[in-house]
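quick one: EPU bound model?
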Amino acid sequence: MEDAYRIQGGKKLIGEVTLSGAKNAALKMVIGALMFEGKVTLKNIPRIRDFDELLNLLTELGATAEFIEENTVVIEGSGLKSNTVDLLHGSKIRSTFLLFAPLLKRFSEAHIPNPGGCRIGARPIDRIMSGLKELGGIVEYDHETGYYHAKLPQKTHGSYTFEKPSHTGTEFMIMLSLFAEGTVHIYNAALEPEIDDLISFFNEGGAHICREGTSIVVEGVTSLIQKKPYTIVSDRNEAVTFAVLGIITKGDISVGPIDPHLLDVFISTVKQCGGGVEIIGTNKIRFYYKGPLSATHIETEPHPGFMTDWQQNWVVLMTQAQGVSTLHERVFENRFEFVSELQKLGAKIEFDSTQVVNPKDYYHFSYNAEKTYNQAIKIFGPQQLHSGVLTVTDLRAGATLAIAALLVPGESIVKGVSILERGYERFVEKVTKLGGEIKRL
Ligand code: EPU
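yep, here:
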């Protein structure tokens, strides 16, 4: 296989998309399932590459995972026999450090390599490892091997305040606290809906987790047992990708099932720039072209703001809007690698070096005054893009380049699409159903 898509763009994409389960919930829930006694059934699992990688890793550790239907998996952690995550598999997915929670519960000691994931900034886990220490863990990092070694000699206890909120970090602190001695308080927690999905999953199994805004209280229990299968929430990021595809190709795409409130900020931004949106019932949203688009000025933020995961798709949309748009990335450093790929198609995008007043507070990553950052861009529109040969730099950038190729008339090649397929289920099939011409090479 060439690991590429051949795309004939220029067609209006029209139709309905059934969203898959959220990658950023499913991966965490499968690891969370190892904290239960007995079998755990999870429905709406997206069949994506990251998920397959994770299942390989879990079975290597001794857990069992069996798909009983296309998107339903049954996990059982009682057979866990190893407390060391393999370097090759473990370094491929960002979420593997979450395995510290079930492994420390089972073995009181565990060894996990520095996590991998997409090439978007340094993505350290310092705040997360501080949280483990604060709740009673002992953690050491071996720079030579790239492994974290952790011990948890007693039950977790106490409280932790995130210096800045972290999505997966919040999930980790919740998992660590499930069987705590007494009550654990987590402050300045992240607000992403996938975290609340994880909380519901644990609470249905007997956990006592309560959220009030950015404060989370976990009352330790002695065991978790699943009573009925759990269905994972739909993928908001996939919804955004198809929304942009609908508008940019002058088409009309409805996405569901999804609670429209999860996309409030996205929906209002689409309306603000002149895109068409219609909420259909309680769990479907229609996105369509209804006339020329106007420029927008966006700063990315964690939920409930305009998510960093949406900005790359949005940038290609803004190449078609009237005027100069601006986009400032606040959450991750180095999430503009795809810009040079869009420039190959004739997009006029420039980096904006205007400094912000208090970068240490403004950015969600740990800002280092000694480093140079490219965090803001200007997008000049509307630009007529042309076809070309593109290379995927990271997951969301993969979808962005596919959108660009589907927009422009003529043939384009998008290379490195296995990175896109780490997070999008049946992308080719879904685009084809909408009338797009796309072939996996
Ligand atoms: N950060 C630190 N130290 C830490 C933890 C985070 O410096 O200990 C920094 C990060 O480097 C980043 C910022 O804090 O600059 C926020 O990171 P966060 O921990 O919130 O992000 P994450 O949990 O690593 C998850 C998703 C991302 C999504 C973000 C924002 C997963 C596996 N990944 O990342 O998804 O963009 O939250 O919601 O859940 C994607 O799906 O393409 C993707 C990158």
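The first strand starts at residue 4 and ends at 9.
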